[in-house]
């Protein structure tokens, strides 16, 4: 018997069709992976099963959960079903938990609502559930608040809430997208263990082929609100027939063509740089304790190189970026670009630019593209000419007419192109790419990587590519620096680091990274 | 959103349309009174005093025989002028202070500005007004200054609060990479992104300004006779409320409807300018 059976589901929101004829099923103990890029309708499919759809939605077709028809249920029945029969894990563990309630309270709440047990019993069951999710009472008492936990620990609490009532079906929507690679591996193995122990069905939604194929039994691939292909995960890479699936695979392992144009002349030199942060005082008159975010970091980037700086969140890579850009002072050490100190001679900063991760937060929503793109000209104390704006836009594959538009008229990939145009317009020598492709879908990411490779040849650019994603740096970087707890723990050419990592931390990173079957 | 779409959305918002119509009615009355009023408000006509509303005097007359409709029209001038200048002072001083505090968050400057705000906030507005008028004597100008000072911390705090999250955005970092300093970033990037909030708060402070002016005039610290003012008309009517209730009713309604209209308009503007609320179904 199948647990979740979706048959010919169609959904329209305010009259716009969003899902067209979706069919999929999940059996007990089975992991069904749903893969798709943003806008493919994968989350809405999951929300349909729980009837948590936005206003103005119109669902047709058939959805049964454990043999019961969801679409004909009354609201009260659906409420009983949510949590008790279906548990849900969300992407963002920061916002899925209520910051003013303790974790024990939040887990116990589900039990109290559905089973009407006494508070103390609910709390003791919450403790058991948290322990099952590897948050033992000895180290994580029930009265902790979410902000006292790390991202991975929070996600365990979210999972504990989802499985507290022993649901038959668990829906996990991008459960590890917001997490670091090593944490991601832990959460995935936790999910796998829970599914096996409780013989739950798991619907795992993700944009990441490697994550899904590593965990799922069956894989469903969605595009534009339709299921384009369904295969066994283990043999997907051999059996796939649909061109979109093949394109996804190709994009995930995409290697942009790069011609090496390295010159043995250092462009950026970071010499034993350290940066301390002052933490809040512990007592009224006490001194501020210090936190060393960047600790004795030294490396060189040669002209024309693409260097990848890899590290997990909190390792100090953002602090280092800001120091290189000359935005925050350092306590020790020297950073020079083209022989000039970035702090003592701020003029040299015109030779570097930066592209950020978030294609939505990187632009002032109230300015037109022409103004956004020409902002770096402030450094040159003159305005950009129309030709310069046109050329920058053309060089990243946009049309000169686009300069009259506002940023919200562009997609995520186009915005990232605009960010690159902005970085490129004053012809810098070094571009720092701070997680510049992490928020993009794989197919768009492949295009942007190609664009970056082309531009580096055309304009003789040097890249410092900062990311947590090993697969991305592998495809584009010549050399790799691995950063951990404020220090560079390993550096070497890409092949050296990937084939023969010397540092224990690098090996852990590499092991944790989900891999595509070859 | 284009201007046209914004305009159409504005027409759909009931709050905004009703609020604007109410506010516009008083603005038109005030403008008209600059050139013409039904009767001269400085002319006393004791013979026709305390008349109830009629075809000749629509809103009746007061205890000196002055036409109440004319007085309300001229009073609207006072109210609007006081409120505009007071909001202007509040914004003109408060917004730059708030921007500066946000640009140098956590610094001594920030602390000084915000603690100064707290100090002003700690005094009730009426108390400040009484203080100022006791020192400098009651007049319209002093009322304006008193209300304006009370508006400064409102705008400073609002601006700082709204600016802080914008300072953490990547486009600010990117502007800093382009070498822009805090003043330039505040003007180019922060200010345009907090304008919506400021407009909405401005509308609400405007209505509070009208209330404050009425309150000051009521206790005799605002506009001085013979210039008519809604607050003083209320004060005058107090002893006569049993024989001439219309004397209290019409200025009372004038205050009520203007403040209501401006608050509705402020609410409507907030809904219209906030994309999160705007896109939600009504």
Provide keyphrases for this structure:
heterodimer, A: about 525 residues, alpha/beta, Rossmann fold, 2 domains, 6-stranded mixed β-sheet, 17 helices, 20 strands, about 35% helix, B: about 280 residues, mainly alpha, MetI-like fold, 11 helices, about 75% helix, elongated, disordered C terminus
Provide a quick synopsis of the model:
The complex is a heterodimer of chains A (518) and B (282). Chain A has 518 residues and is an alpha/beta fold.
Description:
- The complex is a heterodimer of chains A (518) and B (282).
- Helices cover 34% and strands 25% of the residues of chain A.
- In chain A, the strands form four sheets. Chain A has a six-stranded mixed β-sheet with strand order 6-7-8-3-9-10, sandwiched between helices. A six-stranded mixed β-sheet of chain A has the order 16-17-18-13-19-20, with helices on both faces.
- Chain A is globular and about 70 Å long.
- Chain A has 518 residues and is of the alpha/beta class.
- Chain A is built from 17 helices and 20 strands.
- With 282 residues, chain B is an all-alpha fold.
- Chain B has one domain: MetI-like fold (Orthogonal Bundle).
- Helix content of chain B is 74%, strand content 0%.
- Chain B has eleven helices and no strands.
- The two termini of chain B are 18 Å apart.
- The relative contact order of chain B is 0.16.
- Chains A and B meet through strand 16 of A and helix 7 and helix 8 of B.
The general outline of chain A is globular
Based on the structure, what is the oligomeric state of the protein chains? Answer: heterodimer
Poorly predicted ranges of chain B: 276-282
Indicate the overall shape of chain B. elongated
CATH superfamily of chain B: MetI-like
- Strand content of chain B is under 5%
Number of domains of chain A: 2
